[in-house]
């Protein structure tokens, strides 16, 4: 049974994660276990395990007296997180340039090459996985446990925004250029100042794209809510007229 259950959880987790990143659920929407069981055709046990994992990734928030909801970030919250992320990734890049091993430098280069080669065809999950691998190497090479724990927490909280940024038109090629610049400065030349600047530049561009996409998505969601409310107001009158 364990051999069957583990892959099932992984499959549901992947589909559920993609549904959140693709805005199948609205930010702040309450996630009702019974409905999720019907939607994904699995037991409550599987749904609860998946919700715990998504909470650890920052995509789901557990609220007192409400239960799990889709994480909702305001533009103010997102901007604040990106500001801290930029500072920490800049420091991580500088430390990587000074401390990373030859193996870590080579691994970073391979990830950047793979992203450049496959980002156009890869789906969002694969692109995020490659970016995660890039950051795993960058953080490990900085050899700083405080950066490690803090930056991973920030990445989890902005996971949805990272998805928005990577899906934006034209962002893929720009990301390739920015990751290549980070690799060149930090891994090839070992230039701490240039590595810091390249990392900060990457985060600034990602933040600008994510905030723009977030505003567009929120505008679209407001319009959809207004249309539903108008439809609901019309339906009772239509019923009485019949």
UniProtKB/TrEMBL annotation:
MF GO annotations: DNA binding; DNA-binding transcription factor activity
SMART domains cross-referenced by the UniProt entry: FCD, HTH_GNTR
Matching Pfam families: FCD, GntR
Region feature Disordered, mapped onto this chain: 213-242
Start and end residues of each HTH gntR-type domain: 6-73
Membrane spanning stretches: none
Gene3D superfamilies for the chain: GntR ligand-binding domain-like, Winged helix-like DNA-binding domain superfamily/Winged helix DNA-binding domain
Keywords: DNA-binding, Transcription, Transcription regulation
Biased composition (Basic and acidic residues): 214-242
Signal peptide: none
InterPro entries: GntR_C, TF_FadR/GntR_C, Tscrpt_reg_HTH_GntR, WH-like_DNA-bd_sf, WH_DNA-bd_sf
Protein name: GntR family transcriptional regulator
Species of origin: Actinomadura bangladeshensis
